[in-house]
Amino acid sequence: MNADHSTVLRALHDGHAEALWRYAVRLTGDEQLAEDVVQEALLRAWRNPGILEQGCAASKAWLYTVARNFAIDECRSARARWEVGSARLPERARSDHTDRTLDAWLIADALSQLKPEHRVVIVRAYYRGESVAELAKILDVPPGTVRSRMHYGLRALRLALEENGVTGR
Questions:
Q1: What digits encode the pLDDT tens for the residues 18-75?
Q2: Are 125 and 157 in contact, with CB atoms under 8 Å apart?
Q3: Domain 98-163's class?
Q4: Is residue 141 left, alpha or beta, with left meaning phi > 0 and alpha meaning psi from -120 to 50?
Q5: How far is CA 84 from CA 34, 40, 74, in A?
Q6: Which residue from 78, 75, 58 is spatially nearest to 24, judged by alpha carbons?
Q7: To the nearest 5 percent, what fractions of the chain are helix, strand and coil?
Q8: Helix/strand/coil (H/E/C) assignment for every residue in 44-111
Q9: Distance from CA of residue 120 to its chain's centroid?
Q10: What is the pTM of this model?
Q11: With 70 as the cut, is the pLDDT of residue 86 above it?
Q12: Are 110 and 165 in contact (CB under 8 A)?
């Protein structure tokens, strides 16, 4: 974008954004949506530099047309038909560590049912963040063996969790 383009776009914004916003509020009845409409109209002007070269009156008419069409499209969209606005924010969920604690117990129990060679690669990879190469060096086994133990260990872990009534989420 050249400096002249930027200057013209800034002038277009400074000269028309406030009036365009009031127009969009009248169209939509929603101040937040009106802000989105103005932003989209100005973004489209920025993407179409030829519009800016047509002069102030033509650019203004083009902006209002874009704003009107965008507002209509937004009001017709599925999101507008199914969203329900609310003046109040919903209550924030309070932090409850019960689920996390129960999950940890279930996983610890399932891990205890694994063969030691499977358990060690899973714990070190997932809880300590060690890579396959690091594990291969530490355990003095080839990387393929680490991957194999990880595969069969995760499979056994999934089976142990399913036996304890845990299903995939």
A1: 888 999 888 888 888 889 888 888 888 888 877 767 776 777 888 888 888 888 888 7
A2: no
A3: mainly alpha
A4: beta
A5: 17, 23, 14
A6: 75
A7: 75, 0, 25
A8: HHHHCHHHHCCCHHHHHHHHHHHHHHHHHHHHHCHHHHHCCCCCCCCCCCCCCCHHHHHHHHHHHHHH
A9: 34
A10: 0.45
A11: no
A12: no
Using CB atoms within 10 Å of the CB of residue 92, give its burial: 0 to 12 exposed, 13 to 18 middle, 19+ buried: exposed
The Cα–Cα gap between 160 and 107 comes to: 9
Residue type, 133: A
**Which residue matches tokens 């190469």?**
133
Report the distance separating Cα 131 and Cα 109, nearest Å.
24
Cα(28)–Cα(66) distance, rounded to whole angstroms? 14
Residues in the chain: 169
For domain 3-82, give the CATH number: 1.10.1740.10
Token pair in block for residue 8: 């013209």
What is the CA angle 19-33-37, rounded to 5? 55
Torsion of CA 123, 126, 131, 136, to 10 degrees: 20
- Taking alpha carbons only, the member of 4, 57, 66 closest to residue 39 is 66
Residue 76 corresponds to which tokens in the numbers above? Answer: 């017709």
